[in-house]
Amino acid sequence: MPYLAYWIVFVIDWAGTLAGLVAFVHALMQRSDAYTAADRHTKPMWLGITGGATLAMLLFSFYGPGMIFWLAGIVAALVYIVDVRPKLIEVQRGGSAW
Fold first, then answer.
1. Lowest mean pLDDT among 1-5, 38-42, 44-48, 74-78
2. Fewer CB near the last or first residue (10 Å), C or N of the chain?
3. Is the distance from CB of 20 to CB of 53 less than 8 angstroms?
4. Is 64 inside any structural domain?
5. pTM given for the model
6. Where are the transmembrane segments (predicted)?
7. Distances (CA, A) of 94 to 12, 24, 34, 61, 89
8. Distances from the Cα of 26 to the Cαs of 6, 68, 84, in angstroms?
């Protein structure tokens, strides 16, 4: 792999892992009842999903034989960040005025 490509893959690997870690820490810090109020799965389930996603991204590389596991991990972390996290924040702030 050329030198520049190596660094691009390196940055993608660690950016994905950081996203997974952010998702896990956020899931850990939320109240358990907020998940059911937001009509999402339970807190232990999201801790398992985001924790497993982070672990998969730590163990496997974006560019390697375990790439499918890395991709599954980033998808799981991004689903939490894009879908679950905003709903939890909305529920804990009291909903919207719409």
1. 1-5
2. C
3. yes
4. yes
5. 0.87
6. 6-25, 68-84
7. 36, 23, 11, 40, 9
8. 30, 25, 10
